[in-house]
Amino acid sequence: MKNGAYMGSGQGPFGRAELYWIEALRIASATWLELALYLAFYVAYYVALNFWGFLQGSLDLVWIVDLVLIYLLTVAMLRKGGLVAGELRGGFGRYFLISLVSALAILAGMLMLIVPGVMLMIRWLPALGFALAEEHQGIDALGVSWDATSEDFWGLLVSLILPIAMTFGPAGIYLYEAFGIESGESLFGRAVSSETAAWLYLGLDLTALIGNIIFMIFGIAAYSLLREDPDELTEVFS
Does the pTM exceed 0.85? Predict the structure, then answer.
């Protein structure tokens, strides 16, 4: 198998989830420095904005920087994960297009009782790998990703229970807080000082951020496994 990706075995969604976790951990260990630097950037930005009052009015610039950093992190995962030989087949433009289209579609799905959004999130999980490492132009990569994940939706879903909880758990707390502020029942506002609340919000933001990073890692891990020859993939998942 390529890159030593298949380091475990098992039947059913839980067995296959183990394979995805092993590959995700391999990719994360190969790019630990890049992951640490990205987390450091986010913490530094949050502290500068919320505790020191710096970078006020610069959210657009920070958003652009963050977008570029995520692209570079994705490329690092592909390269250091041994999934790209030579030059990338797609660049930032293809990455931006797929990220924008998938994010809008997933958001719309989340507004439709959540389930459609989760389905799209899982079926399009390896799309960036297919777009950047192979000759799949723009939106075509979403279709290739959809086909590649068609027979292992449940294995991926089981794999992603943790990052789903980490991403949407803080979002639920933020929604509760938003309604609580309006009604005077804000949990953090009643229980702690404003400075302590800011640190608690940092914890929530970091939890959601790490959940998103795990999604990114699993996207590359899913690409690493699902790009294999279908006969090989059947053998591994049997």
Answer: no
- Closest residue by Cα to residue 91 from 132, 55, 149: 132
The count of C-alpha atoms lying within 13 angstroms of the C-alpha of 205, restricted to the half-sphere facing its C-beta, is 14
Distance CA 182, CA 165 (A): 26
Which helix (H) or strand (E) segment holds residue 111: the answer is helix 92-111
Distance CA 140, CA 98 (A): 9
126: exposed, middle or buried (Cβ count in 10 Å: 0-12, 13-18, 19+) = buried
Q: Over the chain (238 residues), what is each successive 10-residue block's mean pLDDT? A: 40 78 96 94 81 66 87 95 86 92 90 85 94 87 93 90 91 74 57 71 88 95 80 43
Contact 13, 158 (CB under 8 A): yes
Question: Nearest 5°: phi and psi at 183?
Answer: -100, 0
